[in-house]
Amino acid sequence: MSNNPYEGFQEFVGQVPDLLQPLLIAVAGAIPYIEGEGSAAIGVIAGVHPVIAGLAGATGNIICVVLVVLLSSRIRTAAVARRLSRRTAVRAAGVPVAAGAGSGLSAPEEAGLAVPAEPEPSKGRQRLRRWIVRFGVPGASLIAPFALPTQLTAATLVASGVNKSWVILWQVIAIVLWTGLVTAAATGILTVITG
């Protein structure tokens, strides 16, 4: 009888070509809620060398986060430009920016412009915003994985107006740190379990 409870899983992964294993770990690292640390731990359990599993998981997560930050930044820039052009159009129409007297409507609503309702942010996003205020971007990036995936954290940081370079820097630091810690823990636990 084997001491290794993961032997079947490791044999299955062993059938995948060695060059494909890190690629699969990187793809898993790009998936929210699995991310770099989860994919690296799965890779270690599957029998992939811990350094390769950690690097592949972190790389997949980082690539995905960078793409999310760049896309979020473009969306935010377009939204801010659109909001500015609406204000300019309302002012050009001669509608005061302040709410009308006694109507209960805002100036854009009085001018016949639709004002979209702000959706209630999720509990995780509310928690992230509190962390941003309390700990700044570095602290929020490092502790946010307890509340939200790095992709959502990065998008929320960019949407709140944080510079995209600053978001990328701290998200990369957080991903590398958490992936390294979880990879080391998974390696240690697997060593204890398998002897």
From TrEMBL:
Residues 100-121 are annotated as: Disordered. The chain crosses the membrane at residues 40-73, 131-148, 168-193. Residues 100-112 have a biased composition (Low complexity). The keyword Transmembrane helix applies. This is Small multidrug efflux protein. Keywords: Membrane, Transmembrane, Transmembrane helix.
